[in-house]
Design goal:
- This is Acetyltransferase (GNAT) family protein.
- Keywords: Transferase.
- This protein has 4 helices and 7 strands; from the N terminus they run βααβββαβαββ.
- It has a 7-stranded mixed β-sheet, sandwiched between helices.
- Strand 4, helix 3 and strand 5 form a beta-alpha-beta unit.
- The radius of gyration is 15 Å and the shape is globular.
C-alpha cells in the first residue's frame, strides 16, 4: 500500500469515492455527511492546497484524508492536552466501501501518524459524529483519547473530539 498526495487528475475518482461513502453512511443511518458535504468544491480546494492524501491499494483508492492545521471554531472549547500549538488536524477521513472490513482504516491512521511524526507534529486532533460507533471505536482502539463533545449547528447529535499525543523516536 502507498500513502500519497492526491493529484489533480484523480479528482473525479476522489469525488466519486466520497459520494459512495456518503451513500453507504446514509444507508447505515449515519447522517454525518450529506449531499452538501463534502462537496466537489471542498475536495477541489483540498487538492489545490496540497492537503488531500490517498491510501492506494492495487492501484485503487482504498482511503482518503485531508491533513492540515485548520480547525473548526468549535474546537476552541475543547480541553486539549497538547497546548504546544503544533498539532495536525484530520478531516474527511474515509475508506472506500469496497475496501471496508479489511483493516484499511487502521493502516490509514498509522500512515497519518507517521506523516505527523515525519513533519514534526506533537499531536493529532480529529473528531467524529458520536452516532458513528465504528469510527468512535476505531479511534479509541488506535490510542486516541476523548477530549470532549461539541455540536455543529447543522447536526442534532454531538460530535466527539479526539486527540493523540505523539512520541518521537
Amino acid at each position: 500500500m502507498k500513502f500519497v498526495q492526491a493529484k489533480e487528475e484523480q479528482l473525479p475518482e476522489i469525488i466519486n469515492l466520497y459520494d459512495n461513502v456518503v451513500q453507504v453512511m446514509n444507508e447505515n443511518g449515519i447522517d454525518q455527511w450529506g449531499e452538501d458535504y463534502p462537496n466537489p468544491d471542498v475536495l477541489k480546494r483540498d487538492l489545490e492546497e496540497g492537503n488531500l492524501y490517498l491510501l492506494k491499494k492495487d492501484g485503487k483508492i482504498a482511503g482518503a484524508v485531508v491533513l492540515n492545521k485548520e480547525y473548526e471554531p468549535e474546537y476552541k472549547q475543547i480541553p486539549w492536552q497538547d497546548r504546544s500549538g503544533n498539532f495536525l488536524v484530520v478531516h474527511r477521513l474515509c475508506i472506500n466501501p469496497s475496501f471496508q472490513g479489511q483493516g484499511i482504516s487502521k493502516i490509514l491512521l498509522d500512515e497519518i501518524e507517521e506523516f505527523a511524526k515525519t513533519h514534526g507534529y506533537s499531536s493529532i486532533r480529529l473528531d467524529t459524529y458520536i452516532p458513528n460507533e465504528k469510527a468512535m471505536n476505531l479511534y479509541e482502539g488506535q490510542g486516541y483519547e476523548r477530549r470532549g463533545k461539541f455540536y455543529f449547528p447543522t447536526h442534532q447529535e454531538p460530535f466527539m473530539a479526539f486527540e493523540k499525543e505523539l512520541i518521537h523516536s
